[in-house]
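re: that chain from earlier
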Amino acid sequence: MRIWKEYPGKVFLKTILILLSGSFLAQLLGMISYLFIARIYSPDAMGVFSIFMTILAWVTPVLNARFDFAIVSESCEDNVFPLMKLCIMAMIVVSLATTLMYALYIIFFVDAILNKLTILVLFISLIASGLVNILNSYNNRMGSYKILNIANVKRSLVQSFLGIFIGMLYPLAESLIISYCVSCCVAINTQLRETKDYLLKISQTKFDAVRKVFEKHKKQLTQSAPAQLINSSSYAIIAFFIQDLFGLSHTGYYYMATRVLGLPLSLISSNVAKVYFKDAVEEHNRVGTYIGTTKKTITLLVMFSLPIFILLHTYILEICQIALGSQWVVAGEYMLILTPMFAIRFVVTTITPAFVVSNRQEQELIFQAGFIFVSLIVFVYAKLYAIQIKFFLFIIGIGYSIVYLLGLFRIISLAKISK
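^ sequence. v structure.
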């Protein structure tokens, strides 16, 4: 008890545990649902679903042009609501542009594997995801982690139930897509009810105030957003590359592999990132550096990462066989190959907001471009020499790990630099 009282990072750890409590339940529901979903849907259906989710995941981090990050770091309270309005404006523009491009893809590509209904579903999902980004940032700023937990649990519960229920009647990719869209709407409704008093303030915000915060944080649009788009592209294009090189079934196996390996990222890393960003900003404003918060976060992440990914690497084939069924053993083989890279990613991804804290978004752009470079080189090599998918994933894993480690060293050096 005395050790806990004297532990300097106890507030930091307590905040993370509050977030984890809700995320753990949400992820647990998701994990349980996939025990059924893996037996209801075929690898081909999961492959189609992964293409839709890849497009969504590609755009969601930049839906608000990264101005949602500025909501957390903004030092002037009067600028918060103009920033939220700016985020909404950016969200509408990006959502419309993305939906239009997606519609053209669906309409004009004869071999398109997603039907036209998903055009509307995509637009609704993008709007919902953009609003969730804004509200997450605001609640993170205010320390309202209970609201985030409730929204996460409700979202996971609805998506899990609908994915199973509709899938039993129509085991098609569209069933999974619709269940995802409905769950987004449930999550946004939960958070909007908690913050309804602020909606009027956002609507009454003058355009001049919005213009001023845009000028102050325009690096989010010009540097941070392109960097994040490149980062999400580096993972999104792999799904398209696998579909082109190896077929739809392997895309489904890859999606399931990354889904399982990504659970620690969703459960722990994403929540720690919220707390790290907030604490790093506060330390940076107070003492000029944020190396204390960075070291503390890296230590905590390594303590989580090593046992989690060692266990996964040791027992993943048995887990896939028992939990997901024999048709997903191939996905387990892919997980074995990708586990080391995901262990490194687990640590580094969490502290990438350091580039925003240091106002070095241009360096984040270079860092994220490294993933695109690796992906394109490996794709061209695979296309020329017709390599097997396991070797393809092995090279991707090595290349990405090197980029992550280089990024980690740079982040540590930035945290030491006094502003």
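Residues 291-324 form the longest helix (34 residues).
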